[in-house]
Amino acid sequence: MHEHDHDHGSEISPMDARVRALELILTQKGYIDPAAIDVVVETYEKKIGPRNGAKVVAKAWRDPAYKARLLKDATAAIAELGFEGRQGEHMVAVENTDLIHNLVVCTLCSCYPLPILGLPPGWYKSAPYRSRAVMDPRGVLNDFGVTLAPDTEIKVWDSTAEIRYLVLPQQPNGTTGWSEEQLASLVTRDSMIGTGLATKPGSSA
To answer: Could you tell me the pTM of the whole model?
Structure first.
């Protein structure tokens, strides 16, 4: 899996500025360790948070009836697994196929399904990603190491405070009969945003 670690120079909101100022003061006074905070944030961003979404995807891969419910009413289907809450309302699931690849962006801010994917990555909130995902989605995917067939249609979905999207990635070949736990291990955060694909068996996530 290719991680997209480029610095996009994202804009800092007033709230982000206040948080950073408070963190600086507390660090200077010796109350907090920035390195420890970074570890916690990274854990929730890349490991703990996306596991909920991975369980949803894995169940959809294993259970056709659940998949149908997910595509019809994602909010209710996700709630069946106990994943709901603020910023997890009004969910819509969009499915990747051989002919269609879905990509999620929030052009106005950084709306993100926290109960399903955890904390949003820094690049998701950046102005360059938000604009290029709309104007040049294929180029953005190439930046993430995802090369699609020329005839694959790319659909870009703009999240809002009213609607948030979950990409249902394609199930990797060679995983028929796998358990939901095994399948969930192949589902990455980026594959549920659309900037990545599910991990192939035998590859490291």
So the answer is: 0.75
